[in-house]
Amino acid sequence: MKTNDATQVFDPDATPCPAVARHLEFVDYAAEVPVHTHRKGQLIIALYGAVICRAENDIWIVPPHCAVWIPGGIPHSAKATWNAHLNYLFIEPGAVALPEKCCTLAISQLIKELVDRLTHESIDYPPDSHVARLTRVTLDELATMPQQKLSLPVSSNPKIRTMADTLVSQPEDRSTFKEWAKRLAISERSLARLMLRETGLTFGRWRQQLHLIIALQELASGVSVQNVAAKLGYESVNAFITMFRKTMGSTPAHYFAERKISAR
């Protein structure tokens, strides 16, 4: 069992440079990255595999060829698939106009190439250097990237948190909303109001989003569609594929094939 902590590899706050990049392969490190924080904001880019982040009472998925933005000063943790290859871009506060809240970004091939290029550079570079100019172009491009809705609101409410923690660890649990209300010792009507107030989603939409997040992570790590469908408790593979297509606009096979083409 790997016990190396990925947070010990590099201290992004050790340099005042506007942005620095690093590459990490989780085959060499423990999949669980404990809760931590740093001054610099962090952009997490998944080149291969996937990673799930927890921050601000939300769960964020980083599927291949997307990125999650975590502003500086926000405590966060992560869990990566064993085969995850990630690029990190740590950005000094105020260096670029990015959202003040965590979000998932759809990033261009240009940004992926620029960040990958910067992973080979020193963390301390002169402000008038070629690396500094590449960094400036990267940040300017990053500010134009659109957001994607690949997060799951969790809430700090104890009842919602209990349900969320159970379903995250046991996604095959197909308990009905009525059954969850009974387990949490609350009426269905009260739980429905609480769920909507705390997460902005109905129970059905929330569980579907959870299944999508887990599916993206599992599929990115090489698990078959059949096994993912079974893990999520779907009665058939077709039912799972239908859910995925309605949410993501294409079947799992087409979704990942398109991203492989984009990466090339």
UniProtKB/TrEMBL annotation:
Xref: SMART domains: HTH_ARAC (SM00342)
Entry superkingdom: Bacteria
Which GO terms of the molecular function aspect are on file?
DNA-binding transcription factor activity; sequence-specific DNA binding
Does Phosphoprotein show up as a keyword for this record? no
Which keywords describe this protein according to UniProt? DNA-binding, Repressor, Transcription, Transcription regulation
Per the record, a Pfam family?
HTH_18
Domain HTH araC/xylS-type, which positions? 161-258
Q: Does the keyword Nuclease apply?
A: no
> InterPro entries annotated for this entry?
Homeodomain-like_sf (IPR009057), HTH_AraC (IPR018060), RmlC-like_jellyroll (IPR014710), RmlC_Cupin_sf (IPR011051)
What is this protein's record name?
AraC-type DNA-binding protein
Species the sequence originates in: Kosakonia arachidis
Its ancestry begins with: Bacteria, Pseudomonadati, Pseudomonadota, Gammaproteobacteria, Enterobacterales
